[in-house]
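Standup notes
- HV: blocked on the assembly model, inputs below
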Amino acid sequence: MKTSNSMNNKDFIQTLASDLAITPKAAQKMTSALIATLAENLDSDTSLSIQGFGSFEVKKKMERIVVNPATRQRKLIPPKLVLAFKPSAVLKEKMQ
Amino acid sequence: MKKKLLLQDFADLLVQNGHASKKEAESFVRTFFDVIEQGLSEDKFVKIKGLGTFKLVAVSERESVNINTGERFQISGHTKISFTPDNSMKDLVNRPFAHFEAVDLNEETDMAELDQVDKDMALIMQEEEQEEADDADPNAESIRYTVPSTITTGMDEVAETPETTEEPEEEEEEAEQSSTSDENIEAVVYQDDSAQTETTDSMRKTEPADTADPAASPVEEEAPATDSQPAPPTTETDETQSEETETTEPQGSLTDNAAADEGEQEPAEDRQPAGSEPEDTAADTGPDTPETPEEDISVSQPRTITPTPTDYLATSADMLSPLNYTYCEQPKPRRWSWIRISLTVLLMLCLLIATYFAGYYRVLCPCSIPCLAPYLPPVEQEAVPQKDSVSQVKPQAALPVKDAARQVTKRPDSTAKPVQQTVPIKEAKNTENESVKKKKTEKDSKLKEETSAHSGSVALNVAQPAESQKADSNSVPKRPATHTVKAGENLYKISRRYYGNDKHVPAIIRLNHLRNADNITVGSTIKLP
């Protein structure tokens, strides 16, 4: 089933569908629904933690000034929110 | 504290959104992450569209130092789980901050930060503007805007920080204000006039202020300083007034230069209202005194405070809400930029008109018509077109002359009016008038030369420039119809020799149908217009 050394989206959906005993199409639909819900509900003061896997949280990166070394042009990078994943200790242990 | 969503909560959310039943959702979420875990352990790489990429990264063994004991120890090699969110996911998460953009910074970092706030405030301000904009005139609008804002919060600012902010930055402020000083004065003059005189022509109003007498601004600024001492405004305004007069004094000289520049370019009729203007304003500033200083403060105050973040912090601590502060501060530079734009457009228009007239009188008239007829060798064939051309000249020449005459008759009125004015003002005006007159005489003399040389029938009723005109006509030597080019001569030299200036070079070129004006051969004859 898997052709390469990495699990891409297609492989992932396939595996998910076979594990749940549903069609890949339904699995795809559910996946996108899950991701949409995740994006909707995660904000700067909410985090999602999955037991045995890890936690997703939104972190705020403060604004900062960068300097282009070639032109010495200074730039102000605005603050932004990024999604961060922190693996749980159990997962870390498993991946060793 | 952060709200923690657990797997069950998340499954509930999925159910709420109507994607699946509760049981299904829970099992799906669980399986979802199980599969990720499984994929990671098998392939070390899981990519999920819309979410991101999970990756196992090998971290090699390295040495480190225990910061407490200073002991060296080994950190054994391990694998790290990295997660890189997908671009779409990044955007979704960053949506609240999506409107921010990276800004190039110049020397002042804080200005850029304030600009960001400015952007947000601009939206609120636009709504405000729409409510207030019942008048289309941008000048009047801006004034109506600035006055209330200074009364509400601007004055509080002044009360708190006039000494600390204004004085160390006086030099900078002057430099900054010098660019806006003309507008500043213009707006004030405009408002006084609109309150007092009922004439509706806005062009006439703004132009006089633009080209206003140098005397106008000092008189105006000094008047409130002295008159409003017993007037209602508090002590703060008095302080700022004295500061204001300091800053406005260089403005006077600046407008002086501006007026002088204008005077060179503008046709005489533009200056006409300028003569009568300052007298009006000087007389009118009396009752309006409490307003004028406030307006000036409203202009200068935000400019000084905005660029300094430390002041901002200091004052915002005192203020009830820092938002309110920025709310009042930010719009003003915008308003002024509007006025600046309109002013530059006006100035360019004036310039255009001036150049048009200059071109019309100096280049077209003296060259095109006489170059056909008068100075050519008196061949009989050309006699007929000559007459035609003269008859053409007459109406053209007569019109401007009449205009000039009208202006001359007007002029005594305007100069007679400002009797109450002080001596220096008069002197300044007289010199201006003279310069204008001189220009007019030049123009007139040119016209006269043409007309009187051919027919002598055009009767000019301009009495005043008679003497200078004579002098002019005497100074121009009689020119021959042709000129033989000698070595070392060029068209400019020839033109300068016969006409006293370079302006007839194009006419010479046109008359002789010269292909290459830079290359004329020695010994060739050139017809002179």
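- HV (later): unblocked. The first helix of chain A runs from residue 9 to 20. Helices of chain A lie at 9-20, 24-41, 89-95.
- Next: hand off to the docking folks.
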